[in-house]
Here is the input.
Amino acid sequence: MLTRTWRKFCSSRIGRSIFRVGLPGSDLERARVGVSSFLLHIQPVKVQSRSLKFRTTFGLGLILLYLFLILIVTGVLLMFYYVPSPELAYRSMKDLEFVVTAGMLLRNMHRWAAHLMVLGVVLHMCRVFYTGAYKPPREFNWVIGVVLFLLTLGLSFTGYLLPWDQLAFWAITVGANISSYAPFVGEKVRFVLLGGNVVGPSALLRFYVLHVVLLPAGMAFLVAIHLWRVRKDGGLARPAEPDLIEEEFAEFELPPEKTYGLMELARGSSAAVGTAQEDTVFSWPHLVFREILLLMLTVAGVLVLAIFWNAPLEEFANPAHPPNPAKAPWYFLGLQELVAHSAFWGGVVVPTLLLVALIMLPYIDTKPDGVGVWFSSQRKTAILIFSICLITMTVLTVIGSVFRGPNWDFTVPWHPNVEEH
Amino acid sequence: MQLMLGWWAAVFAISATVAASVRFMFPNVLYEPSLRMKAQRPDDYPDGATFFPEHRFFLMKNGKQFRAVSATCTHLGCTVNRIADGSGFRCPCHGSVFDASGAVTSGPAPKALAWYPVTLSRDERLVIDMTRQVSPEEQLVV
Ligand code: FES
Here is the structure.
């Protein structure tokens, strides 16, 4: 019924002017719809059926894209009520919570989608690592991915200050002070980040501008390049094709009435030479259907979180009384745990080393072994090193999140925390 | 030759723009609590420690002697709490402990708490200058 109406609309004059092809019925139309529609031309006309299997990627990259879209939509809506000045910021939070219709729901969605995005970026990175998908020719896309990871953290961190409650104020105070331990430029970086010496109105304004303009713009730009390169590098990384079995072709006579001319010289062999028959399917409907399904699942997941759990809002920021313990956002708690031992090592040396290692990774590990295979046995050393770093950071983060109580003493999560002042 | 000149002009124009933009991001005037602060008269404060929340320091009074110690933890800038019996300060964030003279006794803080000079203004009010640091022994006697 719906399909029939849609087909009717598409074949009408107006419908044809908008959609050109309409609902495709034949392979030719499936190919045409892929190149004639702006949204669909972003993906190839045909995809490897291997890429569509859920366990190849767990859909992580797409989920991240959807989370980013959810964050943009909810974020723009929140901007209609939010004022980036200390007193008004906190009041807008209260307004969203109590007087704006669906305000709390939007704020919750924004908050949980943001947390999920940080988590998702880490998981996505693990997926790409453990399937060896950063190897040539995809090295630079990995680097872009690392930058996207940093942008995600930056977006989350700048957003953290905006509610201007105790949680926000002290997380940013602690976080910003970590940067002042960087040699030579540390103090300057902190000063320019906060627009002053303390977390105050100018810091809030700066974080706001970064959060709603600069970082999202940079993110959108790099996401576009990231996706573009995935396509240009031939889609998802996959194991090398088995060698082509030479087929015997029958000799055939050229028909005499046909003339041939040299049209163009191209480097290398043409795409189809020397490869076996590819196992591909049309993007429409196979890929498009999965994409829409995943979008619906992602939105549903965020909605469920937002309906059942409220984003925290503590009392109005009070520079005189840090909460005990004062914690950075959870994804920085691994670092804060290190910082609790030594600010220089935890705040500067370790993160810098990790970052450099991540960026250098595809240029150090260039052997084409194990591409497109989960936990390939040909890459034991790389997998071991990566896993050790990953597990260490995870353990530190978990300790910092749940096993640290007042005065940063070791506690157990089920122990009632008593605030002392 | 002329092409070279063009390149240099372009490089110069771009770097000047970048430099100006970077400089632009450093504010010249800060709307923050001033670093020199004028408090009340010496007699207006009780013996012991008084906390100034906006400027985040403790004014210590001992009879006729005045000193001022910063309440900003040298580790990552949390506000330290004074231990009830006056034996020192404790930071809630990562557990640094400072003794009564501000020196670190345990925890990750790298430096002692700063002491600020206290002076008397001409209208007989206490002035705390947070731009300078003094040794913990230095005090104002009125
Ligand atoms: S800020 Fe005081 S111990 Fe870390």
Observations:
- Residues 88 and 99 of chain B are 4 Å apart (CA to CA).
